[in-house]
Amino acid sequence: MTSAVVTAEIYGERRSLRLAEWQLALPLALAFAALFLAPLLLLVATSFFNDDKITEPGFASWAKFFGDPFNYKVIADTLLLGLKTVCATVIVGYPLALVYMDLSPRLQKVLLFIIIMPMLLSVVVRTFAWIVVLGREGVVNQALLGLGVISEPLRLLQTELGLVISLTQIEMPLMLLPLISVMSRLDPNLRDASAALGASRWRTLFTVIVPLSAPGLVAGCLLVFASSTTAFISQTVIGGVRLIYLPLVIWQQSLVVYHWPLAAVASLSLVVSVLTVIAALSYLGRRSSRHLQG
Amino acid sequence: MGRRQSFSDLSYSLVIGGIAILAVLIIVSPVVIALMTSFTAGRSLKFPPTGFSFGWYEQLFDATQSRQIHRAAGNSLEVAAMSTLIGVVLATLAALGIARNRARSARFADNLFMSPLVLPGITFGLAALVYFSTLGFRPSLNLMIAGHLIVTMPFILRTTTASLSQLDPALLDSSQSLGASWFYTLRRVTLPLIFPGIAAGAFLAFMASIDNVPVSLFLSNARTDTLPIRMWGMMESTLDVRVAAVSGVLIAAAFVLMLIMEWTVGLTRRMRD
User: Fold this and answer.
1) What is the CATH number of the domain that holds B246?
2) Which residues cross the membrane (chain A) (predicted)?
3) Mind listing the pLDDT tens digit of every residue in chain A (294 residues)?
4) Regarding the domain delimited by A60-293, which CATH topology (the fold level of the hierarchy) does it fall under?
């Protein structure tokens, strides 16, 4: 009897302790509900109003946004920009991650420093750097003019090519960090075994290293895609006014035109379209890595 | 056969090595070029710069000419410091509460708290603008701190949770079986052990706040704008070469900060793992 009471007491104390520990998350949960969930719910609600004064509920803003073929082009352009940037960062970044594996620990540290350093640099600074590089009097044009390859400065700013090149550098750390994280955990014996069995380095790359590093590759692709499709500063400064992507539309509708329901529709479209592509990419990534490993 | 093999290996080295060198060039050269351009004596962003001078830096540090830039920099620092401070308190408490809890509700809460990293910042920025205006708030630094708190807190939560999950539970059990109270164990055992994780997270959160554009874009006005927003304005209108000088200062600051974080908490190792 007494022992049962004691057990119950211990139990009770344990339970109250666990409850107390769990309660430590409450302040954050409250802040989160008030400052994150409530605003998002309100944004969804705002999209279901017809007029810019937000007085008349209805579906007119959705109908207006999706009734305009121009907006479909903007959504497609935004997603394509993300995919192009993902391809460019994979093509340029993956070999660097491969080389990283073969470096001495000391050089690995230096390379990691070089990769992370731009990440700590404001996106605005990185965007500005590309203006200097790609501008009419910029490095690329001066070099090409000096070499006599071109006679007139090329127009690189305000073109999609210039934007993709810039975003490749700006988003590169997001691709390289997950890749390097996965690759540095690969067993080096696997490569040696593959070589010992007579596979060329190319074959080892595509049949051993790429499948095993797929999780890092997929993670990097997702991060780069999400970041480049919503990179407002780079898109507006390097893309200029001639290239229109969804973030610019959201900004114009909310802070220039002051039509918040339309801005809400545009920003929810951005969320849905970006997250759909991300879900599709990660599904494909999971399936292909399972297929290759199984 | 042997020759073909070595030819294939050679092509591998050339292609992979060549692209890797190109990648390093692409990563590094814009930063170096922007830095060099900031010392130009000319009035444009021509490269190579026309002559060497500290002229743009002098203009930048001139209190009257660059008053708005200074105020924007002050706003950036204040918002970043306050949101990081609040974020450290809230995220550390939450991590202590749920990091080692395997219950489904705790996992759900953890995922929920990390979700601002996935949501496009511009969507949250607009949502915060609509929300705060509906509640009748006028733009102020406090609103910016609240907005930045949400988007930077996940960094602290992530590193702190990671540190906590690497913590040997035996240490906590032995502290408690030796009679230490829960709070004493927290203060003398848990916090010192997870401190590097909290510090790394706080650093990342601070930098994310300094760098944040989407939230500041919607919540600031001309008086409360942050440095990135002001720089964006300077780049959008007439390309003000002082942007180069600001960039130069930020590049130097990032470099120094990075060295400090490397020496104190081993930032590169933490970010790779």
Assistant:
1) 1.10.3720.10
2) 24-49, 79-98, 110-133, 204-225, 232-251, 257-284
3) 444 444 444 444 444 445 567 888 999 999 999 999 999 999 999 999 998 888 999 999 999 999 999 999 999 999 999 999 999 999 999 999 999 988 888 999 889 888 888 888 888 999 999 988 998 888 888 888 888 888 888 888 889 999 999 999 999 999 999 999 898 888 888 888 888 888 888 888 888 888 888 889 999 999 999 999 999 999 999 988 889 999 999 999 999 999 999 999 999 999 999 999 999 988 887 777 666 554
4) MetI-like fold (1.10.3720)
Helix (H, G, I), strand (E, B) or coil at B150: helix
Residues recorded for chain B = 273
- CA B232/CA B235 separation, integer angstroms: 5
Does any domain span residue B39? no
Domain that holds residue B165: 55-272
Per-residue tokens: B145: 């701190």
End-to-end CA distance of chain B: 41
DSSP string, A5-52: HHHHHHHHHHHHHHHHHHHTTHHHHHHHIIIIIHHHHHHHHHHTBSST
Which of residues 206 through 265 in chain B touch A, CB cutoff 8 A?
207, 210-211, 213-214, 217-218, 227-228, 231-232, 235-236, 239, 243-244, 246-247, 250-251, 254-255, 257-258, 262
The number of CA neighbours under 13 Å toward the Cβ of A36 is 23
CA-CA distance, A190 to B23, in Å (whole number)?
Answer: 26
Assembly ipTM: 0.87
Cβ neighbours of residue A163 closer than 8 Å, sequence gap 6 or more: A81, A234, A235, A238, A239, A243
Structural domain tally of chain B? 1
**What secondary structure letter does DSSP report for B40?**
B
Phi, psi (deg, nearest 5) at residue A168:
-60, -45
Closest chain A residue by Cα to residue B88? A28
Q: Which residues contact B232 (CB under 8 A, 6 or more apart)?
A: A124, A233, A236, A237, B213
In this complex, the residue of B31, B47, B149 whose CB is nearest that of residue A118 is B31
